[in-house]
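Sample entry (166 residues):
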Amino acid sequence: MLNADQPAAPHFEITTYGTLHQDPPTGDALTVDLTTVLRNPPEDPTVRDWMIRSNGLDRRVLAYVLATPGARDITWRTARRAVTQLTALPGETVRIHVYCRGGRHRSVAVGREVARILESIGARVALTHRHVHRDVVEPPLADTKAATAALALTHKGVEESQPSGH
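Predicted structure, serialized as tokens:
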């Protein structure tokens, strides 16, 4: 809980976005990369149809993303990091950039939850979703398994070419 003796509530700016849009926000910020740690809802065949037509502003999408293993931990860790930063830099705005590939589902849901947590302790929070209303973007390498296998082979080749003893 925030101390009532504080002159003003802390201020946080949370920006959510998708890396595939190639126009990330600039400036110093705590960053939260969700591109690989949380499943991408449109890739789940059981919900793909309605996920493509929806986004993280929808309660069902919010619930789906937050039910992903690790999602709640990420939101709480992010809120704690932000409060720690505010304590270290009193009076400054703490910026948080939350991103995934498309900026419609995971980043929006996590950004919303972090904002909710911070607001629950009395913080003032500005929340901006840069890409929430853009179309679902398919990654450049649509076959993620093939890309991962190719990367593993490349990595193995690098390891084999390294001198022994390291």
